[in-house]
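sry for the spam today, last one i promise. struct tokens for design, 277 residues
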């Protein structure tokens, strides 16, 4: 009897693109292997053939797989040193530039925002700085993620009490309201924050940005894709715009010509304006 050969991971990924239009080829292969194994174990499936059969019968599993592949830890004001650096060094210089320019709007993009905690943290930090200093500038904060489910949670602005427990008391009281499910982001802050589904493998939906924060997302991509995404961030930023990456991430390769590392500890980079030769 001829032995049955299970499909390879590469064949599975090709099927996902052909049948469902989902391209996972830009992610690290080893990462994909681990994440697919997690989903198969959760479903008690033994082979990739079985998983493909399950996917065909349950198309919603594609979103579950995508969430598993792209999952990253998030919380309000995660890595306090980074937010301290933004408050101490980034915001004052950003506001000063805005007050000297014709633009009266600060624009921030949280890329790979998951369920929105980081996006709201950036909005709180900036809005509170403007309010306490009596500065009249507009604020637009955008959060994007590839997961529809994550964006839906972020858009609701409602979080259980345990998720907001580490927010400083004065900020929690000012920017959150009690809700039957926990706490809801206050409306005057929430209307300045917009969430949308976006795949970082495609061109950015925003431009003229002052700050882009994309932490612990690029580590899932191969080097060529990282360079492409960094190029899009560069194009989306204003002159002297700031990019913040995760602690384990770095600007490398051709992207070294695009960003200057100004705070190595917190992975804060400033856009380099390219000059025509």
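last one done:
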């Amino acid at each position: 009897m001829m032995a049955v050969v299970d499909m390879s991971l590469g064949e599975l990924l090709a099927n996902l693109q052909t049948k469902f239009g989902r391209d996972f080829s830009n992610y690290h292969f080893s990462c994909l292997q681990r994440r697919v194994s997690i989903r198969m174990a959760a479903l008690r499936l033994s082979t990739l053939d079985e998983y493909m059969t399950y996917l065909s019968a349950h198309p919603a599993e594609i979103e579950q797989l995508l969430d598993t592949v792209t999952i990253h830890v998030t919380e309000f004001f995660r890595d306090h040193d980074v937010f301290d650096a933004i408050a101490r060094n980034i915001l004052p210089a950003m506001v000063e530039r805005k007050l000297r320019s014709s633009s009266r709007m600060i624009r921030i993009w949280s890329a790979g925002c998951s369920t929105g905690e980081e996006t709201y943290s950036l909005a709180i930090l900036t809005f509170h700085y403007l309010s306490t200093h009596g500065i009249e500038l507009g604020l637009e904060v955008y959060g994007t993620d590839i997961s529809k489910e994550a964006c839906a949670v972020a858009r609701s602005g409602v979080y259980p009490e345990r998720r907001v427990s580490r927010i400083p008391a004065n900020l929690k009281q000012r920017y959150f309201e009690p809700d039957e499910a926990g706490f809801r982001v206050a409306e005057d802050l929430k209307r300045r924050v917009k969430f949308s589904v976006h795949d970082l493998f495609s061109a950015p939906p925003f431009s003229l940005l002052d700050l882009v924060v994309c932490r612990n997302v690029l580590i899932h991509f191969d080097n060529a894709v990282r360079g492409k995404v960094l190029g899009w961030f560069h194009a989306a930023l204003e002159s002297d715009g700031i990019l913040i990456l995760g602690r384990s991430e770095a600007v490398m390769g051709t992207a070294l010509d695009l960003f200057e590392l100004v705070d190595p500890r917190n992975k804060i980079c400033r856009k380099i304006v390219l000059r025509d030769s």
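Confidence is low (pLDDT under 50) at residues 1-5. ok im logging off now
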